[in-house]
Every structure is written in structure tokens, then in C-alpha cells.
Amino acid sequence: MSQTAIITIRIDEGLKEKAQQKADELGLGLGTLTKLFLKSFVDESQVKFYVGDEIFDEKLSIMLKSKQVKKALKKLGGTV
């Protein structure tokens, strides 16, 4: 299993609320979006990060198919 790290960022409260609302509409958390951005940032020579972008959509699809996400969704499904 790979090691993980915690990142703490400070942003404007209004920006956080708007981002959270938009993420909720997509059924995603801000943590997931942050991970997608960082993966895209590291993997791509040009950062393109917005929903509807082919690279973003591909990375999101891969992430949603991961064992960890499947396990989390299965666990969450048992609590609803």
C-alpha cells in the first residue's frame, strides 16, 4: 500500500463554499478534485483542469474505477 500525506490549504471561505457546492453537484468531494488536479498537474505538460476536459474526464474515470474508491462506495452503500 502506498503512503499518504495530508495537505492543508487556506483559501477564501467564499471560494471554498462555491467549490464545495459545485463538487457536490458532481457527486465529488473537494479532496477528490484536489487529487485529480495534482495528478493532472504532475502528469501533463500543460495543466488543463475542468470538467468536460478529456484528460480530466479520463483521470476521473480511472480514479472512480480504483479498488479504493470501489471499496469506499461499497462501504458507504451499506450505511445509506
Describe the structure in your own words.
Helix 2 (30-43) packs across helix 3 (54-64). The protein has one domain (13-77). It is 62% helix and 0% strand. It has helices at residues 13-26, 30-43, 54-64, 67-77. The chain has 80 residues and is an all-alpha fold.
Brief account:
The protein is mainly alpha-helical and 80 residues long. The chain has helices at 13-26, 30-43, 54-64, 67-77.
Strand content: under 5%
Which word captures the global form?
Answer: globular
Given helix and strand content, the structural type is mainly alpha
The residue fraction in helices comes out at 55-70%
Number of strands: 0
Give the domain tally.
Answer: 1
Mean pLDDT across all residues, rounded?
Answer: 77
Cα-atom radius of gyration: 14 Å
Tally of helical segments: 4
Q: First CA to last CA: what distance? A: 28 Å
Low-confidence stretches: none
SSE succession: HHHH
Task: Give the SSE layout.
Blueprint: H1 13-26, H2 30-43, H3 54-64, H4 67-77
Helix pairs in contact: 2-3
Summary tags:
globular; 80 residues; 4 helices; mainly alpha
